[in-house]
Amino acid sequence: YYIFTDKKGKIIAGGGGYISSKNTTKRDGSQTPAFTGKIKLSKARVSFAADGEVYNGKAYTPGCLVSYKGTVFGNDVDYVVQYYYKGKLITPSEIVNAGTYTAVIKATPGSTVCKGSVKKKFRIKPARVADGTTVNVNTEVNWGDPVIYSPASCKPFVEVTYKGMAMTAGEDYKVSYAYNKAVTEATTRNKPVIKIKGKGNYTGTAKVNFEILPYTFSDSDWTVIKDDGYLEVVNSADISKLKLKPVLTIDQKKLKLNRDYTLEYYTDYGLTTSLDSVAGVEDGKDIYFKIIG
């Protein structure tokens, strides 16, 4: 006979026979239970060492223990156990995922202490993502690079692990974003945040903040809308009457003038002589502009 106890001395598993402080010891050293006849398993006390354990990606030994009035019945001697998960018969090595498991316990034909059968359930708890989740932010180019502003909102890719175990998006967690539509400033009250909500073997929510840096314009970001390729100069002091204007796009999203950027006009290529008015500009004169984010 064998028996296992926890640190507090509580019996958590046993097998090979029966034992009790009330058993009677015979002259030959064998023991008889403190009761007579066969006890229905439905009246016995059933517990599982795995009940209440937290998902860790590894199989849990179920540790089924059946007893009656202090007498522990022998696993595979007095009873056998079959385990089911979501209605499917499984082996003990498949007791891995979070959820409720059903054990069908049946008395063996040769048992002298129990009879019948009984169904009992035990549960593996989902792991809390906030307790050990690491979130790495990916900017589509390199892991750890800063996130650059996009008018379409910034949704960086993430790589999520729980205590070293890789988590799968859609299966283990759902990702969402908040406050991710503007550049992060020193005075920004609500920092951009990634929320990882556990599902399946995981529960709870983990949050990680990230920084959004300003976008740096390049020549490939803008195009020019024009009628015949020439700037039409009107006799007006209003610089906004210039018909030739750049159109800026980032990630195929059009930016808005005076919200996302401003324009300055110049009469020289070096952008040193500012053009404050179009009045009096000679026909054929080149005009240059500068885009300021």
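Above is the first protein from milestone M3; the second protein from the same milestone is given next.
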Amino acid sequence: MTDNNNIIVYCEYEDGKVADVSLELLTKGRVLADKLGVKLEALVIGDKLDKIENSLYPYGVDVVYKVEDKRLYPYTSNPHSAILINLFREIKPQICLMGATCIGRDLGPRVSSVLPLTVRHLKSATIPTQRPERNTKTCFIRFVRLLAAIS
């Protein structure tokens, strides 16, 4: 894989479908990828992921990474962290978006403690179209490039 510096969204997978927060991040990730001129990629980890990519492509995803094994569902910290760390070392994404959920708040710091990342948990995936005032939304626009900038 030689295509680096893209945006990747970690998609939470529960009860046979991608979580709504991940779909929201895909939508915002597509906007950001278009502005930066890069690809939007998605990562889904779990079991029984047959045709899960069909639910992601309508959100503008260019590449889907699926890691499927019955031991990966439900979510457990160490296996998911190891998968992200190894994948990120290979594909070197510019930005990784994760929901500010229990899983995202567990997984983000674990990955960033091993890789040269800065993790920001955001309450909103809103991307302001003009220069924002200093508030929660400002954090997204100011720190999104740092979310998973890998040297």
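Note on the second protein: The first strand starts at residue 7 and ends at 11.
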